[in-house]
User: Fold this.
Amino acid sequence: MSYSIAIDGPAGAGKSTIARAVAKELSFIYVDTGAMYRAMAYYFLQQGIAENETDKIKNACQHADVSIAYKNGEQKVILNGEDVTPYIRSEAVGNMASKSSPVPEVRAKLTQLQKDLAAKENVVMDGRDIGTCVLPKAQVKVYLTASTHTRAMRRYKELLEKGQSDADIEKIEADIEERDYRDMHREISPLCQAKDAVLVDSSEMTIEEVVKKILSLVKED
Assistant:
Protein backbone atom coordinates (compact mmCIF):
# COMPACT_ATOMS: atom_id res chain seq x y z
CA MET A 1 0.00 0.00 0.00
CA SER A 2 1.35 3.42 -0.95
CA TYR A 3 1.99 6.18 1.60
CA SER A 4 0.98 9.79 0.99
CA ILE A 5 1.98 13.04 2.66
CA ALA A 6 -0.16 16.06 1.72
CA ILE A 7 1.21 19.57 2.27
CA ASP A 8 -1.16 22.48 1.63
CA GLY A 9 -0.77 26.20 2.19
CA PRO A 10 -0.75 29.66 0.61
CA ALA A 11 1.66 30.95 -2.03
CA GLY A 12 5.19 31.58 -0.77
CA ALA A 13 4.89 29.44 2.36
CA GLY A 14 7.79 27.25 1.26
CA LYS A 15 5.72 24.19 0.38
CA SER A 16 7.85 23.10 -2.57
CA THR A 17 11.15 23.46 -0.70
CA ILE A 18 9.83 21.59 2.33
CA ALA A 19 8.04 18.88 0.37
CA ARG A 20 11.14 18.25 -1.74
CA ALA A 21 13.31 17.92 1.38
CA VAL A 22 10.86 15.59 3.13
CA ALA A 23 10.58 13.40 0.03
CA LYS A 24 14.37 13.16 -0.19
CA GLU A 25 14.65 12.13 3.48
CA LEU A 26 12.04 9.38 3.00
CA SER A 27 13.03 8.38 -0.56
CA PHE A 28 9.49 9.24 -1.67
CA ILE A 29 8.49 10.81 -4.99
CA TYR A 30 7.96 14.55 -4.76
CA VAL A 31 5.00 15.82 -6.77
CA ASP A 32 4.88 19.60 -7.15
CA THR A 33 1.24 20.11 -8.15
CA GLY A 34 1.72 23.87 -8.26
CA ALA A 35 4.33 23.37 -10.98
CA MET A 36 1.82 21.32 -12.94
CA TYR A 37 -0.75 24.12 -12.75
CA ARG A 38 1.95 26.62 -13.68
CA ALA A 39 2.85 24.52 -16.72
CA MET A 40 -0.78 24.57 -17.80
CA ALA A 41 -0.90 28.33 -17.21
CA TYR A 42 2.29 28.75 -19.24
CA TYR A 43 0.58 26.86 -22.07
CA PHE A 44 -2.39 29.25 -21.95
CA LEU A 45 -0.10 32.28 -22.09
CA GLN A 46 1.82 30.77 -25.01
CA GLN A 47 -1.51 30.39 -26.80
CA GLY A 48 -2.25 34.07 -26.25
CA ILE A 49 -5.14 33.38 -23.90
CA ALA A 50 -6.05 36.03 -21.32
CA GLU A 51 -6.89 35.10 -17.72
CA ASN A 52 -10.55 36.11 -18.16
CA GLU A 53 -11.11 34.01 -21.31
CA THR A 54 -12.60 31.04 -19.48
CA ASP A 55 -14.09 29.33 -22.52
CA LYS A 56 -10.73 29.36 -24.30
CA ILE A 57 -9.05 28.00 -21.16
CA LYS A 58 -11.59 25.16 -20.98
CA ASN A 59 -10.92 24.22 -24.59
CA ALA A 60 -7.14 24.67 -24.52
CA CYS A 61 -6.54 22.51 -21.45
CA GLN A 62 -7.81 19.50 -23.40
CA HIS A 63 -4.80 19.84 -25.71
CA ALA A 64 -2.16 20.19 -22.98
CA ASP A 65 -0.45 17.14 -21.54
CA VAL A 66 1.40 17.86 -18.30
CA SER A 67 3.57 15.28 -16.62
CA ILE A 68 6.36 14.92 -14.06
CA ALA A 69 9.71 13.34 -14.91
CA TYR A 70 13.01 12.98 -13.06
CA LYS A 71 16.43 13.57 -14.61
CA ASN A 72 19.59 13.16 -12.55
CA GLY A 73 17.43 13.16 -9.44
CA GLU A 74 15.77 16.48 -10.26
CA GLN A 75 12.10 16.96 -11.01
CA LYS A 76 11.24 18.18 -14.49
CA VAL A 77 7.84 19.47 -15.59
CA ILE A 78 6.97 18.29 -19.09
CA LEU A 79 4.40 20.10 -21.24
CA ASN A 80 3.46 18.32 -24.46
CA GLY A 81 6.83 16.59 -24.51
CA GLU A 82 8.89 19.71 -23.74
CA ASP A 83 10.72 20.48 -20.50
CA VAL A 84 9.24 23.82 -19.38
CA THR A 85 10.74 23.82 -15.88
CA PRO A 86 12.83 26.99 -16.49
CA TYR A 87 9.83 29.01 -17.70
CA ILE A 88 7.09 28.48 -15.14
CA ARG A 89 8.27 30.50 -12.11
CA SER A 90 7.56 34.03 -13.39
CA GLU A 91 4.99 36.28 -11.70
CA ALA A 92 2.91 36.32 -14.90
CA VAL A 93 2.68 32.53 -14.97
CA GLY A 94 1.92 32.42 -11.24
CA ASN A 95 -0.94 34.88 -11.59
CA MET A 96 -2.33 33.03 -14.60
CA ALA A 97 -2.16 29.77 -12.65
CA SER A 98 -4.12 31.30 -9.79
CA LYS A 99 -6.80 32.52 -12.19
CA SER A 100 -7.02 29.37 -14.32
CA SER A 101 -6.68 26.67 -11.65
CA PRO A 102 -10.29 27.02 -10.39
CA VAL A 103 -11.65 26.16 -13.87
CA PRO A 104 -13.26 22.71 -13.43
CA GLU A 105 -11.87 21.27 -16.65
CA VAL A 106 -8.31 22.27 -15.70
CA ARG A 107 -8.60 20.82 -12.20
CA ALA A 108 -10.19 17.59 -13.39
CA LYS A 109 -7.41 16.87 -15.85
CA LEU A 110 -4.53 17.51 -13.44
CA THR A 111 -6.19 16.04 -10.34
CA GLN A 112 -6.67 12.66 -12.00
CA LEU A 113 -2.99 12.46 -12.91
CA GLN A 114 -2.06 13.27 -9.32
CA LYS A 115 -4.45 10.68 -7.88
CA ASP A 116 -3.15 7.97 -10.21
CA LEU A 117 0.44 8.66 -9.22
CA ALA A 118 -0.30 8.58 -5.49
CA ALA A 119 -2.20 5.30 -5.85
CA LYS A 120 0.93 3.46 -6.96
CA GLU A 121 3.84 5.37 -5.42
CA ASN A 122 4.88 6.75 -2.02
CA VAL A 123 4.53 10.50 -2.53
CA VAL A 124 4.91 13.89 -0.92
CA MET A 125 2.49 16.19 -2.70
CA ASP A 126 2.05 19.90 -2.15
CA GLY A 127 -0.53 22.37 -3.37
CA ARG A 128 -3.69 24.21 -2.35
CA ASP A 129 -6.22 21.38 -1.96
CA ILE A 130 -4.21 18.18 -1.63
CA GLY A 131 -5.44 17.16 1.82
CA THR A 132 -9.01 18.26 1.16
CA CYS A 133 -9.61 17.14 -2.43
CA VAL A 134 -6.77 15.33 -4.18
CA LEU A 135 -5.59 13.02 -1.38
CA PRO A 136 -8.29 13.15 1.31
CA LYS A 137 -7.02 9.84 2.73
CA ALA A 138 -3.35 10.84 2.97
CA GLN A 139 -1.67 9.34 6.03
CA VAL A 140 -0.11 12.70 6.98
CA LYS A 141 -1.58 16.13 6.25
CA VAL A 142 0.14 19.45 6.92
CA TYR A 143 -1.10 23.01 6.44
CA LEU A 144 2.08 25.05 6.00
CA THR A 145 1.81 28.80 6.28
CA ALA A 146 3.77 31.96 7.17
CA SER A 147 2.92 35.62 7.63
CA THR A 148 2.28 37.66 4.50
CA HIS A 149 5.32 39.83 5.19
CA THR A 150 7.58 36.81 5.69
CA ARG A 151 6.43 35.29 2.41
CA ALA A 152 6.93 38.59 0.58
CA MET A 153 10.44 38.96 1.97
CA ARG A 154 11.33 35.44 0.84
CA ARG A 155 10.12 36.19 -2.68
CA TYR A 156 11.89 39.58 -2.68
CA LYS A 157 15.23 38.02 -1.73
CA GLU A 158 14.73 35.30 -4.33
CA LEU A 159 14.19 37.90 -7.07
CA LEU A 160 17.24 39.90 -5.96
CA GLU A 161 19.36 36.76 -6.13
CA LYS A 162 18.17 36.31 -9.71
CA GLY A 163 19.37 39.80 -10.54
CA GLN A 164 16.01 41.59 -10.55
CA SER A 165 17.17 44.74 -8.77
CA ASP A 166 13.88 46.53 -9.46
CA ALA A 167 11.86 44.12 -7.29
CA ASP A 168 9.27 46.01 -5.22
CA ILE A 169 8.61 44.47 -1.78
CA GLU A 170 5.32 46.34 -1.31
CA LYS A 171 3.97 45.19 -4.67
CA ILE A 172 5.08 41.63 -3.98
CA GLU A 173 3.25 41.63 -0.63
CA ALA A 174 0.13 43.14 -2.23
CA ASP A 175 0.19 40.45 -4.94
CA ILE A 176 0.48 37.73 -2.29
CA GLU A 177 -2.46 39.14 -0.33
CA GLU A 178 -4.56 39.29 -3.49
CA ARG A 179 -3.62 35.73 -4.45
CA ASP A 180 -4.42 34.49 -0.93
CA TYR A 181 -7.89 36.03 -1.15
CA ARG A 182 -8.51 34.53 -4.59
CA ASP A 183 -7.32 31.07 -3.55
CA MET A 184 -9.34 31.08 -0.32
CA HIS A 185 -12.56 32.36 -1.87
CA ARG A 186 -12.70 30.53 -5.17
CA GLU A 187 -15.84 28.48 -5.76
CA ILE A 188 -14.13 25.17 -6.52
CA SER A 189 -11.60 23.61 -4.15
CA PRO A 190 -10.75 26.75 -2.16
CA LEU A 191 -7.57 26.87 -0.12
CA CYS A 192 -8.33 25.80 3.45
CA GLN A 193 -6.88 23.69 6.20
CA ALA A 194 -8.18 20.11 6.24
CA LYS A 195 -9.79 19.23 9.57
CA ASP A 196 -7.20 16.54 10.23
CA ALA A 197 -4.19 18.57 9.03
CA VAL A 198 -1.47 19.77 11.39
CA LEU A 199 -0.89 23.54 11.23
CA VAL A 200 2.76 24.52 10.83
CA ASP A 201 3.62 28.25 10.80
CA SER A 202 7.12 28.61 9.37
CA SER A 203 7.44 32.39 9.93
CA GLU A 204 10.03 31.91 12.67
CA MET A 205 11.25 28.43 11.68
CA THR A 206 14.20 27.30 9.58
CA ILE A 207 13.74 24.86 6.71
CA GLU A 208 15.44 22.17 8.78
CA GLU A 209 13.03 22.73 11.68
CA VAL A 210 9.98 22.45 9.45
CA VAL A 211 11.28 19.27 7.80
CA LYS A 212 12.02 17.76 11.21
CA LYS A 213 8.50 18.57 12.38
CA ILE A 214 6.89 16.86 9.40
CA LEU A 215 9.15 13.81 9.68
CA SER A 216 8.07 13.51 13.32
CA LEU A 217 4.46 13.31 12.17
CA VAL A 218 5.36 10.46 9.83
CA LYS A 219 6.95 8.57 12.73
CA GLU A 220 3.86 9.15 14.85
CA ASP A 221 1.50 7.80 12.19
Notes: The CA atoms of residues 76 and 142 lie 24 Å apart. Residues 35-120 form a domain with the Rossmann fold fold (CATH 3.40.50.300). The radius of gyration is 17 Å. The chain has two domains: 1-28+122-221, 35-120.
